[in-house]
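Sharing a chain and its predicted structure for anyone who wants a worked example. Both blocks are below, sequence first, tokens second.
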Amino acid sequence: MTLIDTHNHVIPYVDDGAADWDMALAMLREAVADGISEVVATPHVLSENDLLKDEKLTTAEVNRKFLDILSSRNVRRMPAGSVIEGRRYDEEVFLFNEH
């Protein structure tokens, strides 16, 4: 069975999401441990003003930094349009390999 978390505030420094990068990674590890195979990040950002002030980054910079952190760990980045286990994904996908 595939478990998908369709409402997650994993992106740090955005609205009421993860407090920092370490918390974001811990949230993703916990999701994998709970059997969740896909996480949809759903921040409530409507503009740059919605970012928390303790991290002076634009939305694009937060996304880029988060992707860099994920890429530096045991995570495979699959481009939009990838087919994984017979399913086509229209968005970019990250595969966590904990083994």
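Comments welcome. Residues 13 and 55 are 6 Å apart (CA to CA).
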